[in-house]
Amino acid sequence: MPRFDDMDDVGKPGKPLKQRRFPWRLWMFALLMTAGAAAGGYYTWQYRQQALDNTSGYGECNKSLTKAQAEASDALQKKTDCITVLDGTIHKSKDLETQLTQLSSWSRCAPAAARPRSGSPRSTRSRSSSPR
Fold this sequence. Notes:
mainly alpha
């Protein structure tokens, strides 16, 4: 095989160089990939900023949650105290109502002379029978 010293990589010797066309598809692909990488970086940065904001918001929310739980605990204690006092008052009211009913029924049945007077001994005479 003969060896040609003036052989170049583009074509056979003696022919003019072949000019390639501009690689538009490659250029558009590179432009598209650059835009995609830029958009990805932008959204990554935005989501990072949101994550940092949420982390700081979490601390504030946790503090307010602790305060709200303490207030709820105090309110629960006050509620149980109030219910206890209410139950005692209802029980006392029922006892007083029972006593009132017993005294009312006793005063209707007993004669006026048999009713006890506070601070004075019982008299045998009825005051209602004496003339006024």
